[in-house]
Amino acid sequence: MSEIRGSGRTTQQMLSAREGSVFVWVNHDTLYAKKLAARIGRTDLEIVGPQWLENGWIGRSLSGLVIDHAARQFMTATQRESISRAYDRVRPVGSAEIGRGME
User: Fold this and answer.
1) What is the pTM of this model?
2) Domain range list for the chain
3) How many angstroms separate the CA atoms of 26 and 24, rounded?
């Protein structure tokens, strides 16, 4: 992966994410994000497109949720409205309970 992109904000978001977090990429083509995550040693991240926000979180308890810094501008209204409901599925650190994440 020799292609240089941006200023590294996505890399920093990935590095700062809780272990096993869901990382919402800017679109459905997640190959670049998956390669980036692997390159920086974050193969534990679940890289998904923004369509995941519509119902991918239903019935799940998440260890973390990170929305790529550039993703919101490309999301549908439904996807943006679903962000808070998805965050509600994030477990607090050190707890099996479901709560709002801080990523």
Assistant:
1) 0.84
2) 12-87
3) 7
